[in-house]
Design goal:
The N and C termini lie far apart (53 Å). A hairpin with a 2-residue loop joins strand 5 and strand 6. The chain has three domains: 52 residues, no CATH class; 211 residues, 3-hydroxy-3-methylglutaryl-coenzyme A Reductase, Chain A, domain 2; 90 residues, Hydroxymethylglutaryl-CoA reductase, class I/II, NAD/NADP-binding domain (Alpha-Beta Plaits, 2-Layer Sandwich). It is α+β, with helices and mostly antiparallel strands. It has 15 helices and eleven strands. This is hydroxymethylglutaryl-CoA reductase (NADPH). It comes from Vibrio panuliri.
């Protein structure tokens, strides 16, 4: 075994290295082991009673079955068949409601009660406070600016010359690509195709409209169909090709969509009088604008993509409650919050989120408790996805107002102590 050179003197107060000091003679615990695993359960993508029973024969010794497979879950378990593999039960996440939140949007135009699923104390209370403030100010304006879901195949060639020749052929095929994509979906439509050349690599950006679905699977399947055609028919054969070249920003924070879109791009704003700021947030528009200015600089210093206080809190809680893909919070939480003082001494606040990934059909939206949350919003089913995106942006605006107000009034820590340490 190679000699390990650990500088334990510099790490003497670190518990990991303290343990390591005690185990210097037993580093074998870190080596690969090829014995059979001591825990094996029945793995099957299909959801059947037989496989479920066989899994719990193993899991019963580890936890109580009723905690994950309660009577409600047992009654509805077959509804989960298209949403999960190796099913063993459900996890109950507490759901609270914030609002009413008045939204004056192109598609969302109502007072909304918003279900939020979270285990973080103070979160629902904070969004509720922001929602009540916005409603008292007459509501937030919200506008869906753009929408598209992308997938970005990448092709490698021997040289830049071949890349250029490939692109010359590709641009003659756009209508063919649209027809091929349409063969895979009744609801999706290939909206645009962009080309990015990087030396001997070519990235094709396929942008789709996905109707009322979040649409990621729809877009992947449609792009795969076009991708196969390209590999078969292109007169310039790539040396290598992959269905996605990581240019789409799928489930990753990225700066590209700040000027473009992935999912739904929404902007929302509100103007709030100094009196309402004092009543609900116990601070002033001037102090909130100053906080926003200083924290924008802090965000730049930290290398943040966009600037916001905590979009991720609203997005995660709403996505989980309403059956969205929670992993998309990684990209959806990119955006810009601004707060300024108007000439009349009021607070102007706005948010712009270019990556809102939501749908009201497909995915987890039809599951029993998730559909119930969409029903509370009045946004379940066809024709509601654009409205849900505007609600999402307005909810983020409510959260930004509340948390900035809490910092300015010196209440942020106090609220968490009060609500999280009862």
């Amino acid at each position: 075994m190679p000699k390990l050179n650990l500088n334990l003197n510099n790490a003497k107060n670190d518990s990991v290295f303290s343990d390591a000091q005690m185990k210097l003679k037993s580093w074998s615990v870190l080596e690969p082991k090829f014995t059979k695993p001591n825990k094996r359960i029945c793995m099957s993508a299909g959801l059947t009673d037989k496989h479920l029973r066989r899994r719990w024969q193993v899991l019963d010794s580890l936890t109580e079955q009723d905690l994950l497979l309660d009577s409600f879950t047992q009654t509805h378990c077959h509804q989960y068949a298209n949403n999960i593999e190796h099913f063993i039960g459900t996890v109950n996440v507490p759901v609270g409601v914030a609002g009413p939140l008045r939204i004056n949007g192109l598609f969302a135009n109502d007072d909304y009660l918003i279900p939020l699923a979270t285990t973080e104390a103070a979160l629902v209370a904070s969004y509720n406070r922001g929602a009540n403030l916005i409603t008292a100010a007459g509501g937030a304006s919200a506008m869906l600016l753009n929408e598209a879901v992308s997938r970005t195949p990448v092709f490698a060639f021997a040289s830049l010359v071949e890349s250029a020749q490939f692109v010359s052929w590709v641009v003659t095929q756009y209508e063919v690509f649209r027809q091929l994509a349409a063969e895979t979906t009744r609801h999706g439509k290939l909206k645009d195709i962009n080309v990015n050349i990087e030396g001997n690599h070519v990235y094709l950006v396929f942008e789709f409209l996905t109707g009322d679905a979040s649409g990621q699977n729809m877009v992947t399947i449609a792009t795969e169909h076009v991708f196969s055609y390209i590999l078969e028919m292109s007169p310039i054969k790539p040396e290598e090709a992959f269905l996605d070249g990581n240019l789409s920003g799928d489930k990753k924070a990225n700066s590209y969509t700040l000027r473009s879109v992935r999912g739904k791009k929404v902007s929302a704003d509100v103007v709030i009088s100094a009196e309402l700021v004092a009543k609900y947030l116990h601070t002033t528009p001037e102090k909130m604008a100053s906080f926003a200015k200083m924290t924008t600089a802090g965000g730049l210093l930290s290398g943040s993509i966009g600037v916001n206080a905590h979009y991720a809190n609203a997005l995660t809680a709403l996505y989980i409650a309403c059956g969205q893909d929670a992993a998309c919070v990684a990209e959806s939480a990119v955006g810009i919050t601004r707060m300024e003082v108007t000439q009349q001494g009021e607070l102007y606040a706005s948010v712009t989120l270019p990556n809102i990934m939501v749908g009201t059909v497909g995915g987890g939206t039809g599951l029993p408790t998730q559909k119930a949350c969409l029903d509370i919003l009045g946004l379940a089913g066809n024709g509601k996805a654009k409205a849900l995106a505007e609600v999402t942006a307005a909810l983020c605006l409510a959260g930004e107002l509340s948390i900035v107000g809490a910092f300015c009034a010196g209440h942020f820590s106090r609220a968490h102590q009060k609500l999280a340490r009862k």
